[in-house]
């Protein structure tokens, strides 16, 4: 599993380990087994035990694990579990607010995907992105909205969340990280809506999306894949570039080095 393999990251509750093989077989690029929000407070130890047993008997199944946040009573035990198993590919760290949070999480010896879910996390995003051990950034849109006091999927909320996306994108680029991962989209029974959301955030520079249901995997993949029109345009640009010197025109538009690079990027995504 590489940094380029995370277009779709599908959550599975740790209390339902029988769903993990199905999630792995869903076509998702990665599976995140959740010890945090999907597990009731009184079932944390039971969930860890279930995941421990699964990982011990399914060594071929590499998964990410969303642990409980640093500062909670469950954090150390979650890290111990992740440290124990080679098939834990990485840690998804909720409520990341500082580089110190990342340092604590990396004690498990795994790469970390911090979830930015608070105003303090947004303010510290550059420090977090630069911390050693960070795989890439993501965020929790619902928790962040709650912390900022904005109202759900409204026009105003989207404006604020777009500003947060922008900060994750810039912080990732400056730190030399792969592009960030979009938060979960709560709709899973409307594939067109899922595809539109995935395409929108792809156009904002994001490289993947967290999924909460297997039905979202295909539509998200569609949203992040180049359209047929984009591929055809990119092919025309590359063909023209092979015989051109300096700037030239394709479809009536000027093409220079940055546009050629964009065309190559589109074809690389297809590959």
Automatic annotation (TrEMBL):
Binding site for Mg(2+): 117, 143
Gene Ontology BP terms: oxaloacetate metabolic process
Binding site for substrate: 66, 117
Transmembrane regions: none
GO MF assignments: lyase activity; magnesium ion binding
Lineage top rank: taxon: Bacteria
Residues covered by the HpcH/HpaI aldolase/citrate lyase domain: 8-214
Keywords for the protein's UniProt record, in alphabetical order: Lyase, Magnesium, Metal-binding
Name the UniProt record assigns to this protein: CoA ester lyase
């Amino acid at each position: 599993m590489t940094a380029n393999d995370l277009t779709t990251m599908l959550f599975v509750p740790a209390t339902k380990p029988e769903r993990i093989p199905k999630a792995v077989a869903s076509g998702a690029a990665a599976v995140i087994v959740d010890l945090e929000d999907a597990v009731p407070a009184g079932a944390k130890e039971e969930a860890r035990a279930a995941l421990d047993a699964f990982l011990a008997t399914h060594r071929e199944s590499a998964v990410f694990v969303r642990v409980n946040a640093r500062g909670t009573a469950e954090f150390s035990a979650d890290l111990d579990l992740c440290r124990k198993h080679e098939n834990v590919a990485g840690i998804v760290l909720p409520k990341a607010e500082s580089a110190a949070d990342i340092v604590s999480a990396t004690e498990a010896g795994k790469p970390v995907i911090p979830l930015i879910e608070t105003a303090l996390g947004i303010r510290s995003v550059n420090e977090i992105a630069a911390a050693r051990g960070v795989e890439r950034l993501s965020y929790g849109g619902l928790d962040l909205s709650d912390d900022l006091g904005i109202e759900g999927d409204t026009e105003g909320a989207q404006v604020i969340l777009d500003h947060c996306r922008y900060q994750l994108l810039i912080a990732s680029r400056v730190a030399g990280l792969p592009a960030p991962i979009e938060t979960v989209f709560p709709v899973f029974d409307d594939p067109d809506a899922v595809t539109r959301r995935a395409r929108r955030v792809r156009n904002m520079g994001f490289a993947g999306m967290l999924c909460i249901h297997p039905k979202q995997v295909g539509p998200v993949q569609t949203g992040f894949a180049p359209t047929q029109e984009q591929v055809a345009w990119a092919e025309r640009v590359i063909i023209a570039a092979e015989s051109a010197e300096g700037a030239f025109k394709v479809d009536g538009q000027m093409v220079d080095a940055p546009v050629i690079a964009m065309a190559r990027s589109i074809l690389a995504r297809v590959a």
